[in-house]
Amino acid sequence: MDKFTKLTGVAAPMPVVNVDTDMIIPKDYLKTIKRTGLGKGLFAESRYLEDGSPNPAFVLNKPAYQNAQILVAGDNFGCGSSREHAPWALLDFGIRCVISTSFADIFYSNCFKNGILPIVVSPENLEKLLDDASRGSNAVITVDLENQEISGPDGGRISFEIDAFKRHCLLNGLDDIGLTLEHASAIDSFEKSNASARPWA
Questions:
Q1: How far is residue 71's CA from residue 102's CA, in Å, rounded to a whole number?
Q2: Across the 201 residues of the chain, what is the mean pLDDT of every consecutive 10-residue run?
Q3: pTM
């Protein structure tokens, strides 16, 4: 998993409440267990018209936001079913950070396991960030995980809280497998001693 330390990128505004995982990645795209290739299905029902062409009114289709790496979203983002394809699709599109006032618990956890930083801010700070994000190609903000700070295009700063363990995992690029491998020497030592003590096993 790629490390997340500091990200500077365009932030796209999506002030919609209760964006569920079916809206993030519709069920038609759940036929794969690969983490790649799902970016094309991200927000597909809103992003494409009935004939399959891009919907020019959808925020991520607008020229200024086509390469957005940060999403500033409404309350309760990622609710609904617990499909891990939702963070996979966001990451495959290029989104590395989602900022909202609240997230569904399972989606929130799945983001950390896939290298995406979900940040919870106050409603007042979300309004400021949505205003920043509304500036199109000038909507560049910096997310500094190490210092737990968001910097806006005008120099304004917003601090955020995050669980220390989850922060450690993102800063070091550790998913569940990576966390296990941190203890590789201890596991190897146990396997050797266990083989000696129980040669029949």
A1: 13
A2: 96 98 94 86 97 97 97 98 94 98 97 97 98 93 98 94 97 80 70 77 64
A3: 0.88
